[in-house]
Amino acid sequence: MSKITIPAAATVEFEPEFIAGLKTLFEEKIVFNRVLGLKITLLTPERVTARITMTDQLVGHYAHNRIHGGVISAGLDAMGGLAVMAAIGARHMDESPMQRLQRFSKLGTIDLRVDYLRPGISDHFELHADVLRLGSRVASTRMEFYGADGKLLSTGAGAYIVS
């Protein structure tokens, strides 16, 4: 099995069409991400970041802007998938933006681990994700979930099927 590498970061710059298409897919077409209110704030081949702002819908039965662990887990999983999408997009820069966006229909979570370090209490949250390895069939990622004060609240590690 040969390892497939991502082009050097300095040589990859996403086209506005690709960025817009990936934002639309991630923020609007994936309904659960829309419910969570996930908004992409950075999209590069090496790192993706997003934000969740607390709403009455997310607070649920909890008070004091406490976010449910299931929302944290879902957010981290979504971010791991987004990081893989960006890495796949960078790997296939020889294709048109639309061709690269169509590749994501086969992406799926194989494994997800979440460590809850502190209660999720904040008015908004920052999520980060990086791809550790992008293979020909499986990608490995790490994710982080921060409160508005910059404190690390949760971490995650995920494996995603890419073929």
User: Which CATH architecture is right?
Assistant: Roll
Helical amount? 25-40%
Class by SSE composition:
alpha+beta
| CATH level 1 class label | Alpha Beta
Order of helices and strands: HHEEHHHEEEE
Principal-axis shape: globular
Task: Kindly identify the CATH topology.
Answer: Thiol Ester Dehydrase, Chain A
Low-pLDDT ranges: 1-10
**CATH homologous superfamily grouping:** Hotdog Thioesterase
**Termini separation:** 14 Å
Count of the domains: 1
According to DSSP, the number of beta strands is 6
Q: For the CA atoms, what is the radius of gyration?
A: 16 Å
**Proportion of β residues?**
25-35%
Helix tally equals: 5
- Largest beta sheet, briefly? 6 strands, antiparallel
EC number: 3.1.2.20
Protein name: Medium/long-chain acyl-CoA thioesterase YigI
Domain Thioesterase: 65-152
Family: Belongs to the YigI thioesterase family.
